[in-house]
Amino acid sequence: MTPDQFIKTIYLGDRLCLSIAMEGTKKRLLLKVDCISRVRGNSWNYYAAEDVQEGFLVFEGVSSCRLEVNGQLPNDWIEPVSVTQLNDKADAWEFVFGLGVVDSQGRSSENLLTVIAERLVIETKDGVRLCY
User: Fold this and answer.
1) 3-state class of 97 per DSSP?
2) Given this model, what pLDDT does residue 87 score?
């Protein structure tokens, strides 16, 4: 399954971006999400059998990343914006995510995270990799 197909099997709708970690020597970027749900079929439809609590979206083979912070650090929603294959190479994908920010007065804004990576997997908090 290609990354653009894989991202369509992940529901993040009302989920929270808990943290972002970079592992430079491993060429990985990890987005910790309060709950990652899987989409099985045409829509999510509240399917929870495969939920990963406090799991990670793990970008592997990262060659570049950019976080455009618009004030505060991300502390709310996480939403895939686009997944694009670069230069017709099977191992170069651009992932763009909107990461929500809500301040102490309840005002919201969005930061953008752009990652160029070879692949995307889900990882549990116990380190179990879920590749599809």
Assistant:
1) strand
2) 80
